[in-house]
Amino acid sequence: MTDKQKEEEPQKKPRIGVFVCHCGENIAGVVDVKAVAEYAATLPNVEYSTDYLFMCSKQGIELIQKAVKEHNLDRTVVASCSHEQHWPTFAKAISDLGFNPHMHTQVNIREWCSWVTDDKKAATEKAKRMVAAGVARAALKEPVGTQKLPVTKRSMVVGGGVAGLRAAMDLAELGIPVVLVEKETSIGGHMTMLNKTFPTDECPMCTVSPLLNGVMAHPNIEVLTLSEVTNVEGTMGNFTVEVTTKPRYVHDNCTSCGRCAEVCPVEVKNEWDHGFGMRKAVYKPFPQALPSVFTVDMKHCIDCGSCVIACPVNAIDFSMKKEKRTFEVGTIVVATGYEEYDPTEITAYHYEHPNIITQLQMERMLAPTTLTKGKIVRPSDGKVPRTVVVVQCVGSRNDQVGNEYCTGVCCMYGIKNSGIIKEHLPDTEVFFCYIDIRTPGLHYEEYYKRAQKKGIRFIRGRPATLTPDPKTGNIYVEVEDTLTRTPLCIEADLVVLSAGMIAPRGFGKLGAKLGLLRAKEGFAKEYHIKMGPVRSSRDGVFLAGAIQGPKDITQTVAHAGGAASAAAQPLVRGYLEKRMDTAVIDERLCTSCMACLATCPIGAITVGEKGMPVVNDAACKSCGACVPACPVGAIQIRNFRDSQISAEVSALLAAARAGGSEE
Fold first, then answer.
1. Which of 33, 100, 183, 564 could form a disulfide with 170, with the two C-beta atoms 3.0–4.6 Å apart?
2. What mean pLDDT is reported for the chain?
3. CATH topology of domain 155-246+324-338+503-573
4. What does the pLDDT read at residue 11?
């Protein structure tokens, strides 16, 4: 029997089956599940009631299906875990028997009862009331169909760091066209800035270069640099995204010969080198940068025209303008990465002093292409430091200034650079000040032990102050070693701050355009921290890498692969299967006031041909915001109708009165 036939058949007395789950001791440890099942059997329209150890197990599913057949049940109520996680399991159980899956009702007596109620008697009574409410609602449930919706077979990846590159490549290899949007002049992100990577001390560029070149050369990937997402409309499967691209002032026929930079008279600090390198007003941020095309920095350009004359292929064009393009895509992957915490707000650390630097600055100091030629020196005078202090948890694990969370990778990159300093300068003393050493990865602990053998002095304590000496340029580091209870004052030539990872400062605007929820720390909020870490709060938008929270490179690449896989699923399938438990308008009651249209947060309601509001079922999220906005009650959500909710509340109150409670 089809869903339509079931909708058209006359109403008959419901035959409900109730199944109460022990969930091991999660529920049964607090709730008397047998008493709840016995109580459920006395409720109106309940033809069968039982309990079982694990309803979601194979045996539990078979028990439900057997009961449906033997007792001629037409709807089920399972009292167990959350609707979000387990409704699909039990809905499929009855769907496999030919029933509409929406005739299943989930009652959450775990998160909403056993986990939050200590007293067994009170928890049992509460579970009874919840089951009574669920049964009352189930009796009024209506079969709801599904609809197959076409999708646009193209994906957009926002962010061109290692996470974005990995996601783009994985999608492209599945035959899905990809638009890669990067706001900087080149792709690669933070990984291209590093000197070495833990725990193998590999060259980052040697590792990531094949991926960089692969993305640039892939026929299914269109790379847009100097570009940002400026508007997003639509829903999963059919997004319309506006991308604004800033002018590079150099055309793609640039051969990257560098003659323009040779004749440019302007020299400024290279942001990519974090103060340890210089560049011209026409530049590439680093030699291997891709796209291999120079860029004119109009902020510093003096319009002398030397570069135009020097270019052998006439690639420089100052008439280039900002460009806006619109893309139709089915899914979006957000991979905008992280930023390094700015230690300036920790005034006691005097980050403004040249001999106090961050780990990213140390990475660039160690690079052979910068001003230091890979040598470790004091920025103030170029002298070789004889004492270096590394300070951990700068901007992390601090509820007074910075952030409360642990970045999780600072210990490892701090240990890495401390070891490299000892390798370059064996006679230099290296002090490593930490709160706790965290090495949460395969081979990470061994890496830490190798660093200990190099002669690094580990001090368990967070420095209170870093005091620069104006005469010598040295830094006095005051710290207490909490293991020996010894206060220390270390005179350091160079201090390296292990600054934490934070969400990109401009992500708030992008997140708003994408309609994403953000965690209090500023990162994008995942759908479920364990079961949906690559899904965002908006269907069709997925998260890759450090935008979801701090990660090392290994975790980032793995996370990006998961995001690409999730983003590819509807596009490879070719359609979305949409549940039609959406908003429905009763035209007999509607006055066309359009209050619902103004209230809908995603624009799923529009004005139809008759001048009345019309619901776009494909876009509707069944959030219900439109329902209280209607002054005449003309709009309802299927299976969340006023009559169903009223029956649920009435049953809940009746059960409370019967139990002698006024709660």
1. 564
2. 94
3. FAD/NAD(P)-binding domain (3.50.50)
4. 63
